[in-house]
Amino acid sequence: MKEFAELLYMQGTPQNIIAEKIGVSKNTIGAWVAAGCWAEKKVAQSLTRKQVVNNVLRSINKVAENLGNSSDPTAVGSSSDQLAKMAATIKTLDKDVSVVDYMECFMSFGRWLEQRAEFDPDVTAEFRKVVNDLQNKFVVEQLSIGKVQ
Length: 149
Prior knowledge:
mainly alpha, 149 residues
């Protein structure tokens, strides 16, 4: 039941609709979302590192354009601070492993397992479910202890 609720959540189904379909309260769904870090996992599933870096680069470009059009010393200082923070963000993304990286890897591995299951009798549906459950537990644990962002 909880796994189905998570699947619906990841597909974008509103929490109140999930609660109705599953037959539990909205508060229960909210607790599952928080405890399972579903929101973070959903974002990670939809964003890639490349997309995040591109978004930051677009922001840097906008700040740089505004900086070039301004003669206000206060605006120049503020823009310089913003540029430094965004550059640091890109540097961090280049070094650190994020939940996005884990999700990309796990999703790719899951697709590989599905293909492998077509000819490998050891890769059963039950085996893939166990692997998926362990991957989910790993991501939730890493998020909850603050090891990844």
